[in-house]
Each structure stands twice: as structure tokens, then as C-alpha cells.
Design a protein that fits this description.
Elements lengths: L1 H28 L20 H41 L5 H11 L4 H14 L6 H24 L4 H9 L4 H12 L1 H17 L2 H5 L9 H11 L4 H32 L5
Helix pairs in contact: 1-11, 2-5, 2-8, 2-10, 2-11, 3-5, 5-8, 5-11, 6-7, 8-11, 10-11
Length: about 270
């Protein structure tokens, strides 16, 4: 009975996850206007790639912009979060718990509040409509989460490894580079993946900190594309399918690292 319930639950989860994806792909392949019929087709019998041609011609630059912003966010997040997590997990000093609590509080700040505050600040430093501005804005949300994920993993690393290296004359940075970073590979992939997915799917910072004159991530591109092409739903959904591909590919490639990174800090001797 238990096995049957697990199987049924697994099938239900697959259906719930795959049905929206199937319908999105199906709609993107149907001719313009076919989705407005009283009974839409369940299969793209008269399928067309016009939607994808339109999406690539109008949204290709937005896809590249999102890719650049997401990759930059991953780099900045890991550069800041790795040393911070190492200090919080492996070094002994006062105020560790207070700092961790502050990281949790930061993640509770509403997004619109942060976006409006960053807009005022970035306007003074000419960071509106810039890759640097979007990367820094997304990093404000991803760095605290990355620190918490990495710290949870690094707490499971035996202190004896660091102490043995210190006895042999290695400094803190040498211990960090030679021991902590290689051991924390799975956790780094996990934190980097979540940072990438957040930056890739971000809409609030993207629409607040861009005007459409210089750069425009894909989330804002889809939003404005819907406004301009409200009758061409196959092109809109083709854009959504293209925007889902990078995230899906990364999830498939990195899934085993993510499982190991998430569960690595769950148990501690």
C-alpha cells in the first residue's frame, strides 16, 4: 500500500510539473490565433515555428542580457559568500549567531522596498541601465542565502583539517584556498545554482533598474512583449519556452551536486 501511494504521488507530481510545460510548448507551436478558438487543439496538428522565429528575432538580445546578469550574480555571490561562510563556520569569534540572525532578517525585507532603495542609490552612481547595477542588485538577495547554505555545509567539515594545516604553517587564506574550497564543491554548485536561478527569473529589480534604452533582461522582455504582441500568443509562449531552457539544462546537469550540497550539512558528528 505504501509503495502504491508513493507511486501515485510520484505520478501526480510529474503530471503537475509537466502539464504546464507541455501546454506551453504546444501553444508555442500552434498558428497565431488558434488559441483563441472555443476548443484549443491538444496537439499542434498544423504546427509552425513562426513563434520561435519571432521570439529569436526580438528577444535574443534579452536572453543574452539575462545570461550575462545571472552569470555575474553567481560570480559575485560566491566571491563574497565563500569567505564569509568560512569565517562563520570555521573561525571562532564573538557575534557569529547575531550575524547569522541578521542574514535571516535581511531576507525578510520586502522586495519593493529594496528595489526602490537601490534605485535611489544607483541613480547617484549612474548604475541604472547597466549590467553592474543588475548584478549588484540581484547579489543583495542571493549573497545572504548563499552564505547560509555554505555555512551549513562548512559546519560539517572537521575543524581538525584546518587546525592541522595551521600547525603546518598555513595561514587562514591558504587553508581556505587549499582545503575549504575543494571540499565545499557541492555546496558551491548548490549556492551558485540558486543564485543563477534567482537572477535569471528576477523581474522586480530588472523592471525597476532598467528603462529599456540600454539593456533589458528576458523577464522584462517577455512582459513588454506581451503588451506589444497581445494577439500573438504563440510568439509569447515561444519566448517563455526559450527562457526556460537554460534553467532546465542547469537543473539537469547540477542535480546530483545540489542533492549532495543540500544534505551535506544535514548531519554532523
Amino acid at each position: 500500500m505504501t509503495r502504491y501511494l508513493r507511486t501515485a504521488l510520484g505520478v501526480a507530481v510529474v503530471i503537475v510539473l509537466l502539464f504546464p510545460l507541455y501546454w506551453m510548448v504546444n501553444a508555442s507551436l500552434q498558428p497565431a490565433g488558434s488559441l483563441l478558438k472555443p476548443s484549443p487543439d491538444w496537439l499542434p496538428v498544423n504546427g509552425t515555428l513562426d513563434g520561435y522565429r519571432s521570439a529569436l528575432s526580438t528577444q535574443g538580445g534579452h536572453l543574452l542580457a539575462s545570461l550575462a546578469v545571472a552569470a555575474g550574480t553567481v560570480v559575485v555571490s560566491l566571491i563574497v559568500a565563500m569567505p564569509a561562510a568560512y569565517a562563520l563556520a570555521q573561525l571562532r569569534f564573538r557575534g557569529v549567531q547575531a550575524f547569522v540572525f541578521a542574514l535571516l532578517i535581511v531576507q525578510m525585507v520586502p522586495g519593493p522596498v529594496m528595489a526602490n532603495s537601490l534605485y535611489t542609490l544607483f541613480s547617484e552612481f549612474s548604475l541604472i541601465d547597466s549590467y553592474a547595477g543588475l548584478v549588484l542588485a540581484d547579489s543583495t538577495a542571493t549573497i545572504p542565502f548563499a552564505i547560509l547554505v555554505l555555512r551549513a555545509f562548512m559546519l560539517s567539515i572537521p575543524r581538525e583539517l584546518s587546525e592541522a594545516a595551521r600547525v603546518d604553517g598555513a595561514g587562514y587564506w591558504r587553508v581556505f584556498r587549499s582545503i575549504i574550497v575543494p571540499v565545499s564543491r557541492n555546496a558551491m554548485v548548490t549556492a551558485g545554482l540558486f543564485s543563477f536561478l534567482f537572477a535569471w527569473a528576477d523581474f522586480l529589480f530588472a523592471v525597476t533598474l532598467t528603462t529599456g534604452r540600454a539593456i533589458e533582461p528576458i523577464t522584462v522582455g517577455i512582459y513588454r512583449f506581451i503588451g506589444n504582441q497581445s494577439a500573438d500568443w504563440n510568439a509569447v509562449l515561444a519566448t517563455a519556452v526559450l527562457a526556460s531552457i537554460p534553467a532546465a539544462v542547469l537543473l539537469v546537469i547540477a542535480q546530483r551536486y545540489v542533492v549532495a550540497g543540500v544534505t551535506g550539512g544535514a548531519l554532523k558528528d
